[in-house]
Amino acid sequence: MPLFRRKSADPVTESIEEVEPEPAAPPKPKGYTPKKGEATPRRPVANRRLATPAPANTKEARALSRDKRRQDAADRREGMARGDDRYLTVRDRGPVRRYVRDIVDARRNVGSIFFFGTVLVLVLSLVPVYSVQLGSNLLFAAMLLTIIGDSVFLARLVRKRVQDAFPKNNERWGSLYLYAIMRALAFRRMRIPKPQVAVGQPVAPRA
Question: Using only C-alpha atoms, what is the Rg of the chain?
Fold first, then answer.
């Protein structure tokens, strides 16, 4: 039996495991912009939002619901005005309809003066003078013929440009003609979506 035994290593020392340090992330290039939702020094926690406190009572809940509906309606109006497809009706959606709107908005349309012409004819027809009433009728007929001619020209223009820009277009031509003519008859400031091009500006299809 041996008189001397070799002392075992310190149990505390044996329990310590060597931990290799994690490799450092490569340095970001100069001018690097972090992605949306990624943590940054100024935004240490990504996508952190302040929690909306729960309404204390029914009255407050109704007020919050009313405010939310009002904000949603304002967002929809703004989206429709700027031509965002997420907020547009079915008749206004798609690149073809957007291109047709640009074609109409970039030209001077005779139909835009239809309302003023109609008001003028109505006023002249109330004058109890035969020659004035006859003149108002002739003016109305001339105005109608001019608008019809301009609408026919606009329909041909829409067909030619849409065929060139969208050879595989599957929308009905009659629907596109009516869409363009009805927009041309409206005042520029009252058109929805709002015009995105200036009068006389060359237009091209937009995504």
Answer: 35
Segments in the chain forming alpha helices (H): 11-15, 58-81, 95-105, 114-125, 130-165, 173-185
| pLDDT, averaged in runs of 10, over the chain (207 residues) | 49 46 55 55 50 70 78 78 82 93 94 86 90 92 94 96 93 95 92 92 84
Q: The tokens 């869409």 sit on which residue?
A: 179
182 and 106 in contact (C-beta within 8 Å)? no
Residues 156-186 as b/e (b if ≥16 CB within 10 A, e otherwise) read: eebeebbeeeeeebeeeeeebbebbbebbbb
Rounded Cα distance between 198 and 156, Å, is 21
pTM attached to this predicted model = 0.65
- Hunting for tokens 């309606």 — which residue is that? 73
SS3 124: helix
